[in-house]
Each structure stands twice: as C-alpha cells, then as structure tokens.
Amino acid sequence: MADTEDVAVKRIKLSLWGISTLLTILWLAAEPGVFSADSFFGLRAALVQYSGLIAIGCMGMATILALRPRWPEAWFGGLDKMYRLHKWLGIAGLVAAIVHWLWAQGPKWAVGWGWLARPQRGPRAIPDSSLEQSLRSLRGTAEWLGEWAFYAAVLLIALALFKRLPYRMFFKTHRLLAITYLVLVFHAVVLTDFAYWRLPIGWVMAPLLAASAWAAVVVLLGRVAADRRIPGTISALHYFPGVRTLEVAIHVPQGWPGHKAGQFAFATSDRAEGAHPYTIASAWNDAERRITFVVKELGDHTRRLRERLAVGQAVTVEGPYGCFTFDDPCPHQIWVGGGIGVTPFIARMKFLAASVERPRQTIDFFHTTSEYDGDAIAKLTADAAAAGVRLHVLIDSRDGRLDGERIRALVPEWRDASVWFCGPTGFGQALRHDFAAHGLPVDQRFHQELFAMR
C-alpha cells in the first residue's frame, strides 16, 4: 500500500533527525568532558570536531542516496521522497559546514582583531602510531583543500537550489559536488581527532565515509543505477498542440522488468542533457513491450523534444521507480489530476481496461486543466470508458477552479474514499487541508507524490 505524503514526510524528518542525533550521541560519548572545558579554545577545538562530523555525515548520506538505491524506496514511499531527504541532508550538511567553518576561522579573526588572546601552546608530543604521524603531516594540505572545497560546495549547492537554472546545467554542476565531497572526505579523515577512530563514533564514520566516497566515484563515472538502465527505441510520436504535450512511445525489446501504473522512469535521449524523470503513461504488456511517456513543454529541454526526437531514435530508460500505485482497500477512489498530472491516471485506466479481474472499487477521476485539446480529451474519455471510471473534465476558463466542495458534491461516497492526487504542489496541499477539515483521515487516505527531483 502506498504511503501518504504525511507519513512519508514524517519518515524523512525521522531519518534526518535520527542521523544527526546518532552522530551527536556518539560524539558526546567520545567527548564526555566537552561541557567542562577549561578554556574557550578547548571548547572551540571540540566544536570544530563536532560540526565537522555532522557536516560530513549529512553530506555522506546524501551522496549515498544519490545512487538511487532500491532498498529504502519502499520504506520512504518512493524515490521522490528519497530525493526530498537527499535535498534536506544536503542543506543540513551545508549549514553544519558553515558552522564548522565559522568555528575554525572565527577565533583566528578575533585574535587578529585583538578581541582574543592567542593561546599558549607547548610542543606537541610525537604520536606513537606511524599512521597518526602520517595524518598529522598532511594537516596543512587537508586544511587548505578543505577550505576551498567548502567554498565550492556552497556555490554548487546554492546553484542546485536555484530553480531557474536549466536542468542540463543543474545536471552538470551537481555532479561536480562529487569531486568536492571526495576532497572533504580527505579533509575529514586527516583532521578528525585520531582517538575517535578507536571509539564507536569512528566505527560509524569509517564505513560511512568509505561508502559515500565509493558513491561519489560512481556518480563521477556516470554509473548511477546502471543496472536499471535498458536500451529502447522510439516507436511513435504524437503531439497535442492544444495542451503543448508530446506523447512518446518507446519499444523496449528486453531488460524491462515491467511496472505498475503510477510509477515513473528516467529517460535519456541526449547524454549532454542527462536523464529526465517522467511518469509512465501506459500499462505494461509483456507481449507489446512498450513504455509511453506524456511530456509537457515546461522548460528548455521539453520544448525542444518535438524537434529533436524521431521515430527509430535510440534512447535509454531507467527504472521503474515510485510507490504511487493505487493500492488501497477503500471501496471508492477519487483521482485528481492537475494539468500534466493526468499521466499516472492514464496508465492506471489502461491497466484497468486490460485487466480480467478489476479491483472492486468505484472511481471518480477529476481532470482539471487550463488548456484544451480535443484530441487529448477524446483519448482520455475513451480510456475512462474502457476502464469503467467516471471522468469529470474541468476547463479552468469554462468551469472555474476545482476544490474540495465541488468534489464532495459530485462524489457522495467521499467519506469512504481515498484521494490520489498528482499535480501542482500548492493545489494538492489545499485539497488535503480542505478534506482534513471535513473529517477525512488524510494521514491514511490522501496520497500525493513529491515529484521534484531537484
């Protein structure tokens, strides 16, 4: 059964705070006297270590999630939720890295300005361990490289958060984060208090750094999810001018494991552009072996596809991903597809039409759009009729905005229904709050994808 957005967000927050809390507890076990430090610079040394561990720990987990691993997807409720955690971990790592940098540099500035007295240090004891001696000899290099890698990471993460950056530029610049992360791993290994490696904090950090460094290398080599990529060929193209949407059918002769309606995949038609995620708009038929995407012209890349794609062209498809799969025991389902959010519902209707045994559910499908294309609506109407779905098409300029009150008026069974929403995030949030205010248990029965991969 697919998780609702509320459940998924709670698990994302649990994971984020769980990682930070675990590292904090292990660090406190390694530094039990931190709160009784006898000087400011003694406290500063401890907090430099702590902030650095939190920063590299969050960045390391974000790097591992960048590999799109299969094992946590079901628990998080889909790759879209995993990418939300990836984003939050990146931001948390950046904040911790800024704090780490301030603790490292701030006291030096204060000494230079005469606000603090430089601490008196005696000669450092020579370590007994040859490994510790080697690491100590690299401290200057690690500090210099780490500082510049930090500046690069700040810039690259800021670019990643800048929504107006074209996807192809995001794809290229975001990959560079793997290089900065590898430098930061070197920085962390050299400058982490050597005593930590013999303690539980080191037992956790060592495999985390090793796994995340390996993940960064995989990203740099362009081998993310390579075992889930399969070759395909474009078999048909159809453009719907009224809604500025391109339907792309891809023949995948071998390797595709099949998919459930509502899942999505990454498709690559131009290596320089990288892989783009699209919801699959077709049910899987092992005899036909075809995947269909419906692509809306929303950005530079999607606007160019109509001219760049051609029947017979080779493409790569990776997936499937996602848990927006319509699995629930409710006797009634309400589907709401806003604009291009219609796509997963098309796939589900095609699946229902082809199924010998359909789920014992009644379904009301509300498709709301600001644009109109007669051919597209005719196909949608035919799909709904074949699947036994009650279709409600609302054109914004003609019918006004769709809201919870209108849905409840047209669906008397709404109290026993689940709601499946795909469309603009703000629209989905408004519907969820509206249904919650009228008593629908949205934690269990309002399903919404967080379909944002950046």
Choose one word for the global shape.
elongated
Determine the N-to-C terminus distance: 26 Å
Secondary-structure-based class equals alpha/beta
User: Strand tally, please?
Assistant: 11
Q: Radius of gyration, Cα only, in angstroms? A: 26 Å
What is the chain-wise order of helices and strands? Answer: HHHHHHHHEEEEEHEEHEHEHHEHHE
| SS field, number of helical segments | 15
Placed side by side, the strands forming the largest sheet appear as: 4-3-6-1-2-5
State the helical fraction: 40-55%
Quote the beta fraction: 15-25%
Low-confidence stretches: none
Mean pLDDT over the residues: 90
Biggest pleated sheet: 6 strands, antiparallel
Report on this structure.
This protein is an alpha/beta fold and 454 residues long. The protein has helices at 5-30, 40-65, 73-76, 79-112, 130-137, 139-161, 167-191, 200-220, 300-308, 343-354, 374-387, 396-399, 404-410, 425-437, 442-445; strands at residues 229-240, 245-251, 264-268, 276-279, 290-296, 314-321, 332-338, 362-369, 390-395, 417-422, 446-448. The strands form two sheets. Strands 4-3-6-1-2-5 form a six-stranded antiparallel beta sheet, covered by helices on one side. A five-stranded parallel beta sheet has the order 9-8-7-10-11, sandwiched between helices. Helix 2 (40-65) packs antiparallel against helix 4 (79-112) and helix 7 (167-191) runs antiparallel to helix 8. The longest helix has 34 residues, at 79-112. It is elongated, with a radius of gyration of 26 Å. The two termini are 26 Å apart. 38% of the residues are buried.
